């Protein structure tokens, strides 16, 4: 007897949460947060993250990997880039280093934080997990090249004073970033798509019926709405974060790290859930893809925006950040070349991430 396959439908909470989060964002935007409004913003932020992960998985199940992870990484990065450019346009003493601090924070969070947590939960459940070293190693190579060309070289160039690029140098960095990211996306989705598929999986979702086209488009729209809400609510809560940061004696630049953590929550939750299902390659696609998109899309965007923006654009890292970047490059390379992940590698990455956060609080 033939069994009838039912098309999965979206749960009601996933339909209600994104518009509710958008309403909270509209009600709180540009206002001082009282206790009640602060609680609503925090609830809206948590709900938007949860809904974003759910809808991203619906879309990913329909379009298949690695397109699903690519959609989530690019969507949140595009919205984040729009927020960066908007904040830079508003000026202020922190505007000159905003792009650098945000991009560097995203690189450290993705390559050490998200990767470390994914390896940790996966190793605790499965002991040893395998992934495709040639895929993740290639992604890491692109990230390191982008980070060096965009965040390290400005400190050593001599055409302009300080940690800045000249107009021609910034334009070159923007073009190179787009080329590297574009070629990687082509390789990931067309030329060598099979390299980025999970090596093994214990997930029952692989055998579940795919959602319909209508459900997929609804989820895609709600995913974008969730990501707008996540980024917007993270920005809304930033004044409260600034007060909290000042109260503990940390520099205001740490607020950017906290906001980056909030913005990257959807990728983090999705990566952890994939690792728990023994789909570590999906976790690495999310983590490395988000870090790559953060540089590859931000640098070209600010290169164009700098034509209309006044004031210097500081991109070069300080020596402390360079040391962390070099150490991250070495550790990540040793992790990716093995194709196998254990608790030891997870611990090393999480120690590096903790060092980044600690030094951001006590520079």
UniProtKB/TrEMBL annotation:
Keywords: Membrane, Transmembrane, Transmembrane helix. It is a multi-pass membrane protein. This is Ionic transporter y4hA. The chain crosses the membrane at residues 12-30, 36-55, 67-90, 102-121, 133-156, 168-187, 217-236, 248-265, 286-310, 322-339. PANTHER family: SODIUM-POTASSIUM/PROTON ANTIPORTER CHAA, SODIUM-POTASSIUM_PROTON ANTIPORTER CHAA. The keyword Membrane applies. The keyword Cell membrane does not apply. Residues 34-189, 219-361 form the Sodium/calcium exchanger membrane region domain. It is found in: Membrane. GO terms for cellular component: plasma membrane. GO terms for molecular function: potassium:proton antiporter activity; sodium:proton antiporter activity. InterPro entries: Alkaline_pH_Ca-Antiporter (IPR052946), NaCa_Exmemb (IPR004837).
